[in-house]
């Protein structure tokens, strides 16, 4: 039995975790393979119930410090003796890869999920030194380097990497949500994501303000840890917002209710939420900071200029729904085939 250990920063509702959920739903397509997960965050566990593996195969760091993370990695390697370690933790992947090498792991994979070059250009000297050191270690160590997009690969590896698009599991089920049923005659503009700097929520707030008096347009947010955003909306008396929290099947919800999907991010790797929206035949308005590899037929990319966003939101909301032939590069079948090749020993 081949053992594969995935190392992640946390098990919340982010893109990495959702992709991992999708992969594990197809675990029977991996012959003689057992999966394990090590989370380097002790408390982020929102998505654990959706992971299709034995919960005994999921491990957590006890504390949020590097000593605890290294300790649990060593303990986990000794306990399960993995054949393959697949690391998803950005710069700190270098540390975990070196430790894995000390235990003669047969194959180590470092997976880049984000393009952080623009935001890291403003980092402190100490932070830039850390990043340079981690990237140097990754460049010289014998590992497989893969990325969710070309930009993500350039961000972490500079060169010598392969792009592997993450698969999206598109399973439609007829989900009814009371608050959305109440407003289904309105234009519903969706956003998916946690309250992080990357998602650029201050910009989203400015967009919502522009539509404060537009009673036929509502902004719908899917994601965990959005209390800060709710508080800001309350401060500005913005009542054209709906918060759904974390949901298990955003694809189905968007297909049924969404008029438009927006993603004005400062940076991304390759956002699966945008792929899901387009797969549901929902037009997606996306920041030009995001790679156009995320376009499968329904995406529009524009710079982060508020007036341009308002203009394009109005324009896209006025269009009739169109049927297009979508690119299938994000299919789970294609993704699983690539992973099977990657996991060969």
Automatic annotation (TrEMBL):
<dbReference type="InterPro" id="IPR028098">
    <property type="entry name" value="Glyco_trans_4-like_N"/>
</dbReference>
<dbReference type="GO" id="GO:0016758">
    <property type="term" value="F:hexosyltransferase activity"/>
</dbReference>
<feature type="domain" description="Glycosyltransferase subfamily 4-like N-terminal">
    <location>
        <begin position="57"/>
        <end position="170"/>
    </location>
</feature>
<dbReference type="InterPro" id="IPR001296">
    <property type="entry name" value="Glyco_trans_1"/>
</dbReference>
<feature type="domain" description="Glycosyl transferase family 1">
    <location>
        <begin position="178"/>
        <end position="328"/>
    </location>
</feature>
<dbReference type="Pfam" id="PF13439">
    <property type="entry name" value="Glyco_transf_4"/>
</dbReference>
<dbReference type="Pfam" id="PF00534">
    <property type="entry name" value="Glycos_transf_1"/>
</dbReference>
<protein>
    <submittedName>
        <fullName>Gt4</fullName>
    </submittedName>
</protein>
<dbReference type="InterPro" id="IPR050194">
    <property type="entry name" value="Glycosyltransferase_grp1"/>
</dbReference>
């Amino acid at each position: 039995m081949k053992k594969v250990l995935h190392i992640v920063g946390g098990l919340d509702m982010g893109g990495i975790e959702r992709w991992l959920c999708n992969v594990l739903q197809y675990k029977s397509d991996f012959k003689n393979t057992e999966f394990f997960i090590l989370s380097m965050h002790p408390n982020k566990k929102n998505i654990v119930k959706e992971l299709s593996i034995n919960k005994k195969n999921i491990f957590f760091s006890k504390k949020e410090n590097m000593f605890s993370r290294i300790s649990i990695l060593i303990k986990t390697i000794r306990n399960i003796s993995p054949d393959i370690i697949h690391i998803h933790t950005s710069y700190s992947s270098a540390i975990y890869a070196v430790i894995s090498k000390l235990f003669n792991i047969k194959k180590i994979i470092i997976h880049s999920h984000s393009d952080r070059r623009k935001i890291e250009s403003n980092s402190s000297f100490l932070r830039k030194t850390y990043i340079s050191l981690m990237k140097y270690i990754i460049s010289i160590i014998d590992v497989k380097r893969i990325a969710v997009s070309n930009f993500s690969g350039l961000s972490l590896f500079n060169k010598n990497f392969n792009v592997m698009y993450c698969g999206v599991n598109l399973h439609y089920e007829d989900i009814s949500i009371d608050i959305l049923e109440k407003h289904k005659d309105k234009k519903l503009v969706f956003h998916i994501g946690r309250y992080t700097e990357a998602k650029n929520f201050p910009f989203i707030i400015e967009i919502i303000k522009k539509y404060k008096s537009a009673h036929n347009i509502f902004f719908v947010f899917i994601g965990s840890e959005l209390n800060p955003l709710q508080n800001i909306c309350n401060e500005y008396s913005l009542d054209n917002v709906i918060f759904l929290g974390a949901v298990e099947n955003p694809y189905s919800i968007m297909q049924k209710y969404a008029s438009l999907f927006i993603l004005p991010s400062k940076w991304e790797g390759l956002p699966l939420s945008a792929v899901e929206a387009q797969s549901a035949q929902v037009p997606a308005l996306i920041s030009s900071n995001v790679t156009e590899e995320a376009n499968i037929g329904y995406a529009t990319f524009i710079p982060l200029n508020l007036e341009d966003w308002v203009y394009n939101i109005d324009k896209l909301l006025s269009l009739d729904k169109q049927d297009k032939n979508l690119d299938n590069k994000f299919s789970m079948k294609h993704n699983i085939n690539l992973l099977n090749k990657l996991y060969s020993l």
